[in-house]
Design goal:
Layout lengths: L1 H6 L5 H10 L14 E6 L2 E2 L4 E6 L2 E6 L5 E3 L8 E7 L1 E2 L14 H10 L10 E2 L3 H4 L6 E4 L10 E3 L3
Parallel strand pairs: 1-10
Antiparallel strand pairs: 1-2, 1-5, 3-4, 3-6, 6-9, 7-8
Amino acid sequence: MILKFCASCPSWLLPMAVALLCGCGGGPEGPVRVPLAGTVTLDGSPLEGAEVSFYAEGEARVATTDKDGYYQVAGGAQVLKYQVVVSKWEGTGAIKMDAEAGMDAGQMEAMAMASGGAPAANIAKQLVPDKYSDRTKTELTFLLTSEGTQKADFALTSK
């Protein structure tokens, strides 16, 4: 019955059906990625343990800096213009408390109690200014070209 149906089909339909069932070969798997690496400094000193995040339409890549402030995105990244976020947290808690951001001692104590009474030293604090560490405020961008780079360097300042 199937052979009878195929015998009555247009001549182009059978090769097309075979191609669809077998898949189309020859193309690379996934998007083309190129090397992306560089260094991050804060006030001229290497920023160890910072998370460097690259965001673009449909793409997000993350790397962590070493003791020299060097990072390398594993597997590279697509050739795109990226919004860049650099952050480094001090402490182990999940609550960000910052007296400089307008929290008074009572608010900080209330947050510590809400976090299970964790000592203030264990409350997480962002060490990188919001103009780099907050995705809605970051001033950092990077255009990755088709050659890739080992020099996507970011010299941050705390002021």
